[in-house]
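Lab notebook, design round three. We kept the backbone fixed and only want residue identities now. Task for the bench partner: fill in a sequence for the structure below.
Input structure tokens:
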């Protein structure tokens, strides 16, 4: 693992903590181009009351503005949790070169767990995938979040 890759995933983890602080599922991501972070995003679905307020979509929108183009062909996304079908589709549509995923999502992930939308030969673009970077740290954050959420729900019963 390159030091720079770990640095970028740590930046994505910082984004996930922002979501955590809002009682959102702690998912964060950053998009890197030419060795620099050009966009950041974190989950805000409940806060914004918006199905589309996923970390990846926020970052893709910001990166497009920064690059002046919807095509992000020379960019890499670092994401704390495997993307859902909506975000995987947006990643393919943005022509992202690569994504680096910390933790896989066996219940809803669409970069190899449930299915792999990022590398379907039928699409005109496939995305390179790397998994497992700081996986334990990200998995623990998610487990802690859901454990605390269950405890809050039990107290409110």
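Proposed sequence:
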């Amino acid at each position: 693992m390159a030091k720079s890759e770990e640095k970028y995933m740590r930046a994505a983890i910082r984004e996930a903590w922002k979501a955590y602080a809002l009682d959102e599922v702690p998912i964060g991501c950053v998009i890197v181009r030419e060795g620099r972070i050009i966009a950041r995003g974190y989950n805000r679905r409940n806060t914004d009351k918006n199905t589309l307020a996923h970390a990846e979509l926020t970052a893709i929108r910001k990166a497009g503005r920064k690059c002046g183009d919807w095509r992000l062909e020379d960019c890499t996304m670092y994401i704390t949790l495997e993307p859902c079908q909506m975000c995987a589709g947006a990643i393919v549509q943005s022509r992202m070169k690569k994504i680096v995923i910390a933790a896989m999502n066996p219940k809803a992930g669409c970069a190899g767990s449930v299915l792999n939308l990022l590398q379907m030969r039928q699409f005109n673009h496939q995305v390179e995938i790397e998994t497992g970077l700081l996986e334990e740290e990200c998995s623990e954050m998610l487990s802690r979040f859901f454990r605390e959420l269950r405890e809050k729900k039990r107290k409110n019963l």
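Keep this in mind before ordering anything: The mean pLDDT is 96.
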